[in-house]
Structure prediction request, 665 residues.
Amino acid sequence: MSGSLLLQSLILGVLLGGLYALLAAGLTLYFGVMRVVMIAHSAFLILAAYLAWWFQGETGIDPLVSLLVTVPLFFVIGYVMQRLLLSRLRPASLTMMSVLLTFAIALVIEGGLGYVFSGTQRRIQLDYSSSSIEVLGANIAVVKLIAFALAGVALVGLWALMKLTRFGQALRATIQHPEAARLLGVNTDRIAGFGFGLGLATAAIGGTALSLDSTIYPSLHWHWIGPLMAIIVVGGLGSIPGAAIAAMVLGISQSLLQIPLGTTWAQTVFYVALFATLMVRPQGFFGGRLAQRF
Amino acid sequence: MPSASSTRSAFDTALLGVRGLILVVAAVLVLAFPRMAPDAFILSVGVVIASYAALAVGWNFVGGFTGYISLGHAAYSGLGGYGTALLIIDAGWNPWLALVGAAVAVALIAVPIGVASLRVRGASFVIVSISLVLILLLVSQSWSGLTGGSNGLRVPRPFADDVLRPEQHERFFYLNVALVVVALAVWWAIDRSRFGTGLKAIREDEDKAQALGVPTFAYKLAVFVISAFFTAMAGGLYALWFGSLDPIFQFSILIGSYMVLMSLLGGIRSLFGPVVGAVIVGYSLEYFKAQYGDTQFHLVALGLLLALVVLFMPDGVLPALGSLVDRLRPDRATSIREMTAAELLEHNRAIEKDSGTDGAAEDRETEEVVR
Prediction:
C-alpha cells in the first residue's frame, strides 16, 4: 500500500467524519431535548438531497443556494413535528413509541420520494463535479471539500448558537434539567420544538452536502441510518462531543478499512463498533449513567 | 379478560359464550378458506397473511411479554429462510428436517445476539435490532459464494412435481396455520406461567422486577431465543413456499416493521392480537401492492398506518374492544384488568388533579420515575 493512498484515505476519512459528525449532532440534539430517537433523520437528509437536485435541475443555479429555502423549511417542519406529533406520545412509552413514529415518517418520506421522483438513481452534474486538488500526491475531490466545509461551518454555527446565545443557554438548560429550566422561566415546550427544528436544519445542510457527490435514490436513507445510529450509541446517547468524536473515529476507520476490505465490508466497522460498545460499555463512551436505559 | 373465579356473573358467562362463538367461527373460516378461495391468487394472498401471522406471533414473544420493541426480527426470519435453503441445497437434508434444523440453529445464534443486545433498553435496543438486519443484509449481499448474493438463491420444492401450484398454496396455508396455532399455544402457556409473570413485570418496570428477585436477564434471553426460533420457522416456511430468496427482501427492515405494526395494531398484550393485526395489515398491504404496485405509494400507506396506530391506538384493536366491553359491564367496579404503567400514571394523575394537588413539577417527577 502506497503512502499517498493511505494519506488519501485518511483525508477522505476526515472529510467523511465531518459530515457524520454534523448529522450525529442533530440526532443527539433530538435525544437531548426530547428523549427521542429520530429514525427519520436520514430520510430528511435524502429529502434535502432530492430538493437540492430538483432545484438545480429546474433552475440551473448551484444546489448550495437551495439551502436558503431548505434550512428554514426543515426548521419549521421539525418544530411542527415535535409540537404536533411527538409531544402527543405518552411520557411512559415516549422513547419506544417515538422510534416507531419517526420510523413511520421515514417510510412516508421514502415512499413519497419514490412516488414523485421514481426509484431512478439521480446525480447532480456540476462544472466542478470532477475537479480535484492534489495534496502531497493525494487527490481530493473539490465537492468533498465543499461538503466538509459546509459541515464545519454548520457545526461551528451550532456550537456558537449553543454557547453564546440566550436561546442556546435555554436549550442547554432544557437538556440538562427541564424542571429547573422551567422554574427559571424557560418555556421548555417551545424550546424543545426549536431544538427539534435545529436538529432537522442540520439534516438540510447535510443532505445538500451529500447531494454534491453522491448518487441518490429514495431508499438510500437505510444506508445512512445504520452508521448514524451506531455513532450515537458508541458516543453515548445525548452527548454531542461524544457523537462528534465517535463520528470522526468511525469515519476515518471506515475510510482506511476500505483499502484492504472494499466498500461493503468496510461499512461493517460501524456495526462491529456498535456491538463491541454494548458488550464493554452499554451506555456508550461518553454517555452518562442514564443512557443505558434508553 | 377471562375471570377464572367460580362466582362468574351472568355478564361474564355471556361474554365467554360470545368469545367462544367468535373463536369457533374464526377457526371454521380459517380452515375452510382454501375451499372458499375463488382463485389461486386469492389463495396465495391467504398464504401470505398466514405467514405474516406466524411472523407476528413469533415477534410477539419478545414484544408482547417484555415490551422490548425489535424492529429487526427480519434478521431471524431471513436467517431461517437462508438456513433452510442452504441445509437442503448444500447439506442435502430433507426439507422439513432442514426447516427445523435451521430454526434450531437460529435459536442458537440468537443467544449471543441476545446477550449483547438485551444489555440495553428502549431506544438503544431498537437501534441494535435495526443494525442487526443491516449487517445481515450487507453480509448476505457480499458473501455471494454462500448466499448467491444479489442473484438470490433458488429453494427446491418440498413437494413432488405432480403437486400443482394451487395445491401447494393450500398445503402451505395449513402448514402456516399449524405453526401459528403451536406458537399461540406456547404463548398462552408462558402467559399463564411464573415465567410469564416475571416477563410482564419486566415490561412494566424492569428495575422493580429485578429488585423483587426476578432473574430479568435470564428471562429476557430465554424469551428472546424462543421468539427467534418461531420467527425462523416462519421464515423457513416462507422460503419453502416462495421458492427463491433475495437478500433485499429477506433482510429487510420493512418485514421487521410489518411484524411490529401487525402486533401493535392487534394488541401486543393479547393472545390473538398479532393474528388480528396480521389479517388487517396483510390484507391492506396486498391491496396496496395490487393497486399501487409499480409506485412506492404502498410505503406511504404503511407509514401512515403505523403513525396512526402509534398516535391513537398504542394498545391495539383487541384491548380497545376489551375496554369497550368493560364499559358495558354492569358491575364495572369489580372488574379485574391489567393496567399498564402508562394507564396507572394517567389514573394517578387524574386522582392527584382531583384532590387539588397542583404543580407541573410534580407531574414531571412522576414521569421521571416511570421512565
Residues 84 and 101 of chain B are 7 Å apart (CA to CA). Chain B touches chain A through 54 residues (CB under 8 Å). The beta strands of chain B are 153-154, 244-245. The first helix of chain B runs from residue 10 to 36.
